[in-house]
Structures are given as structure tokens and as C-alpha cells.
Amino acid sequence: MKKIAPFLSFFLFSLVCFSQTIPQEYRPQYHYTAPKNWVNDPNGLVYLDGEYHLFYQYNPFGNVWGHMSWGHAVSKDLNRWETLPVALPEFDNPDGTQTMIFSGCAVIDSLNTSGFFEKGFTKGMVAVFTSHIEGKAQHQSIAYSADKGRTWKRYDKNPVLDLGMKDFRDPNVIWYPEKQVWIMTVVKPLEYTAQFYESKDLKTWSLLSEFGKQGDMTKIWECPSLTKVPVEGSNESKWVLMISSGHRQKNYLAMQYFVGDFDGKTFTPQKQNEILYVDEGKDFYAAIPFSNLPKSHTKPIMIGWINDWEYAREIPTGDTWRGGFSVAREFSLKKTAEGFRLVQQPVAQLKSAQKEAFRIKNKVIDGVYNLPFKGEVFDLEVELRPHRAKVVTLNVFQSQGEATVIRYDVATQELSLDRTKSGQVNFHPRFSSVERVKVPLKEGKLSLRLLADKSILELFVQNGEQALTEWVFPIQHEGEISLTSEGGKANISALSIHTIR
Ligand code: FRU
């Protein structure tokens, strides 16, 4: 026995390592994923007392959608997340049906408008969510927590808003100081309509107005939010209404936004000649903004679900976990000749966890340039001058015959993100895809920032004027990176790569 003991323990050790490494092949390192099981939309993004909360749609029992409950994670720096126990679980109704906790938001009721908390208590958290009874009803309900979201009580007079509809969901609530009221934005998905309600106590809601039947109506409307957003280089702000709905490419999902004015009752959009999308990739959906951010954040911050319902259930991340969340992104508006446009960037906090791995300046490329860095977890920033080149490409997650290709065509000003040869693509007929967006050069320059994290790519173009988020599932994991120029020489003005600790 003595003799075989070391072999036996080595065998058991290998077994444990093996079973842990296989499903972890695609596990992101700095994007939040639940330790196990299925996740979808972020819910109740709220800041309180030094903690950022990420509640999210979660199935505690498996890695497919079902038993929807609110999972919970917290972070002190929007960077590293700690998973906490399920906050709001699905529950049984007296008639034998179940109520699932669908998407919603969380607010801090610092004036105790709800009366749920002790007199003078300023840290009460209230969750506003859709109570969903499968095949029967969707209405809005509330729950409250006096211990920073660790334990919750459901309001005993739920639901607080019920239109008797089967599809009526995803409340997002803001405090509107001018009227000292809460304003809820919620959608009737099948009618492509958002509704605005107001309440003094989070319990009684009255309809203010409706907005809808315009913009992208190729898919149902979900997860709306209304946010006051600063306009860069001015003291002005505008209101942004975001709606999760269809994608520029038919039958995929994305988020669209409208910019306009909100007077406490009605949202009036600016004239827009085109549909505006928050992120041009296939995998950014259901993002909502944080509530109650401290003043030190001068811009709103959002987090989105990385996935597309088209194939979300089949992404090959192994048996343990499925779905993930974007990094926290701050956003603002830019005034352009065509109207206001969204600009988004990863929050600065991300930098604090990084270490510089490589940097170059003013390098001419003529053909292929292989970077002296390999990896699948990095933050790459590059400023390129195509000069005489007709096409420049950035190739990442590259191995023999495999790469995700970011390509810029100077003549057409088209930037594309091509994952058709990125690795595993056949698990679903609609996964293999190329995104295309128009990106004019700025003073002859193209600037890209790519957050790569095992299986997630978040690409920010021209300092956040465009964003593209996608899953990719490399097979060979060589992690090579190259830049190419075709048809002439191009110049890399600056390039840096940071690894993430
Ligand atoms: C969006 C969504 C929401 C709903 C939730 C259910 O992804 O369909 O409309 O509340 O997911 O999990």
C-alpha cells in the first residue's frame, strides 16, 4: 500500500487537474463569469458603500436557461468580482406554479421613500424586477434589503405594477430629483413600446407616457434604460434611451439607442436618419447602467451580457458555466454633424490590474509583422496609419490556420471583425460571422483597443466611437498576434500590450 500511495495520489491529483482544466479552457480571467451554471442579463447594477453590485439572471440548477433567480457578485474596483450566494431565488406560489425573478434593477432608497427601512436609515436597497409566471403573467414586483443586498424580503403586496399581460418586463428605475420621484422605464416587448411610470414610494406607479414603434423592430424589445448622459466638451447632458432588440444583421440581437430630451414625463428623441446601435458585435445585450454611482464617476457606467440568444444555449464553454459579462464601460455622448452619438470606454480601473508586456512606436510594416508576444489574455492598444496600404489587419488568437481577423479597408472605410476561422464555429449554424462597420480615419489614423480574455473580445474603435463584442473559441491556443499591410506600407504609430494580473 505504501508503495502505491504516491501513484494513487498522483493519479487523483491529475484527475482533479484534468477535470478542472478542460472546462476552464475558455474561462475568462478578468470578465465576470459565475463559477458555475447559466447566466444572462445583468440586473440591479448598483453602488453602495464602496461596493459595486452585479446581480444577474441566474439558473442555480444548471447551465441552460431556467429557474431564473438573481445571482449576485460584488466588486470594490469594478475589476475583481466576488461571487455571493443567490440573492433572489425563484419561489413557489400557493397554486403550485413558480414565480421566476426576471430582469430588473436595484436602487438605493436613501430617503426611505418606500418606508421599508428604519427611520433615518439611508442605505436601504430596493430591487425592482419582473415577476414571471411561465405562460401566465409578467408583472413588476419589489424586494428590499437592509444589509447591502445580502438578504432580501419580498414586499407582501406584490406585484406593484400589473397590466394583466404575459409580456411586460424589465423595469429600470431612476431617481428624478426635479420632481422628487422615481421614474420607471419598462417594455411591452411584443409591441415595441417602452413605457414610463412615476412613483413616490416605489410601490404605487402611474403611467406618464409611452415611446415606441420606431427604430429597430426586427426583434422584440427588452431591457430598457433611460439615462442622463453628459455631452463631451460641454456642460450639457442629453437623455439616452437604450433598448435591447435586433441587430444590424437580421435575426441576431443587439442594443439600439435613442438620444433625446426627457422632461419628467415624455421622452422626445432627436431626429435620426439611421438606427443607432450600442455595440456592433453579436454578443452584447441587455446592458443597463449602474444606479447610485458616487460623484467621482463623471460618466454613467454599464455592464452587458456577452451572448446572443440565437446561439447562447450552445456556446462550447464546457459543462460548468455558460455566459459572461462585459467589463464595466463608461459612456458619454459626442456631438457630430449627424447628431449625438454614444462613445464608450472600459472604465479606467481596469488599468490598475495591468502590467505592460510590450510597447513599440513608429514601426513601418510591409507585409506581415509578427508581434513578439503571445497570449489570450491582454489589453492591446494600437494606433495605425494605413499610409499607402490598401488594407491593414490585426490578427489575434492566431495558430496554424486559425485566427480572428480585424480588417480595415481604406477605400471603403470598412472595419470588419471576422470570426469565421476563429476556432470552434460549427456548434451552431449562425455563429460563424463577420461584422462590418463604417469607420472613417481620423487625421489618417485608425485607433483600436482590444480587450481579449480567453474567449471574449471587446473591441473599441476610434476611442470608443464604435464597439464590437464577440465570443470566439480558439482550438489551438497558440495566441499569436500579427499585423499586416496589403498593397503598400503602413505605419504603427504606437502599440502597447498589457497583461492582466
Ligand atoms: C433578456 C430577457 C429579459 C428577461 C430575461 C429572462 O435577455 O429575455 O427580457 O427578463 O431575459 O431571463
Automatic annotation (TrEMBL):
BP-aspect Gene Ontology terms: sucrose catabolic process
Domain of life: Bacteria
Family per record: Belongs to the glycosyl hydrolase 32 family.
A GO MF label: sucrose alpha-glucosidase activity
Signal peptide span: 1-19
Coiled-coil intervals: none
Residue ranges of domain Glycosyl hydrolase family 32 C-terminal in the record: 366-498
Residues annotated as domain Glycosyl hydrolase family 32 N-terminal: 31-346
Protein name: Glycosyl hydrolase family 32 domain protein
Keywords associated with the record: Glycosidase, Hydrolase, Signal
A GO cellular-component term linked to this record: cytoplasm
